[in-house]
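Practice problem. Given the sequence and the SMILES for calcium ion, write out the predicted structure.
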Amino acid sequence: MAFKNKKLALILSLVLLIALSNAALADDHAWKRVDDSHSSIVYSGRWLESETPESFGGSERIANHSKFNAEFTFVGSGFRWIGSEGVNRGKADIYLNDDLVGKDINLYNPVEEYQQVIYTIDGLAEDEYTVRIVPTGTKSDEARMAYVTIDAFEYVPTFNETLADAQQAFRRARTQPRLGEILLDYYSAESIEALKAALDTYGSVEESVLLESEKLEATYRLLGALNAFNDTRTSSAFQDLSGNGNHAVAYDGPSWDEGKSGGAAQFNKNIGYLKVEPSETLGLPENIYTFEAWIYVPTGLKDWGGAFAFGTEEHGAERGVSRLLIRHDIEGQIYLHLGNGTSKVVGKAIDIGWKYNTWHHIAMTYDTSELVVYVDGVKKIAERCPNVDISNGVGTVLFGAQNIGTRYYGGMVDEARLWNIVRTQEEIAEYMNQELTGTEAGLIGYWKFDELYK
Ligand SMILES: [Ca+2]
Ligand SMILES: [Ca+2]
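Answer key:
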């Protein structure tokens, strides 16, 4: 079962944990994923970071020598190692609390396959465990090299951790008045009260008591309500206020927070994006545009993340698309991209002077011969470039990722606007601090991200 919303996954996990208790249904476990860049994974020796769009989070670690290892400590009852397989992959040993549990695990595969489950340890008693992966430096005869890959680790958290996650998710729903109102449209107040009571009670009773409890029924009802709510939320939130119906749909749970003006879309560095389905109104028939938005980048994140992209439906790296990436761990740094459908015509990392934990207005204009970037209404870059066909008449917009599945952004975006005209520096500076009416000439998409914020 795939759920678009983390909260649903958490509630489902809770339901499954209650319903199944200790039943051995490994596939229904609540696997919690930790990406390869997470600080809970300790790498010893030289592990190279490999940027692969097919990997979870857009990267994985690789090493090929037995002097190197990677350690991951978790509290729970199960563990999975996620990595890529291929022709240049070799073997590894895996240790659980210093005991060798898997020897010469072979990552060789005649075809490249990403996000594969390389090894599973399941059915453990709930406890703290340390897993160590050691490349052996050896390979099978048909393999070209002996690389071992780590894309992510997954673990089965304790019942209490799952419960805490579910409670946190629901508490958040309760403290967002608009969200609470929307929930009430799909679920009776009585049922919501029953659910709140159930969640409060779950925190203080034994797991076994829950099995025969009527609260299980309440939880199932809640799950149904949240499903209905989620379907509606993802189709109606993040509306386009230009009147063109170019609404942004949430995938894998971008949320909302206090923004530059009202609410803003809040992105998770590890997963989730907003996508506008292809439409003719987002086509840019004259190959000219202005795209603008406020962004806010927090400290403490790593790597690149796509704040926004627009153009063709294919958001692939070399396609006819324009995008802006933020380098989370280098203050001020962006990557500016413009493609002509087969290759990139502009692609460069530049310092534009943005600061951490600060709202900045970024605008990009393209007039078929020059790509200009404005920061807070001031021109920062003017790049000569050829006339490229941006969207072939049918355009889309993506927020929060470089393209679907890679280089997720970890900050906020607010007041995003796409125009099929070139706005002047004076217009950009004059209107960046005020909301639009939505009827302005040339405005083809306008996202205020206020819907789910109080
Ligand atoms: Ca990864
Ligand atoms: Ca807003």
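Check your answer against the key. The first strand starts at residue 32 and ends at 35.
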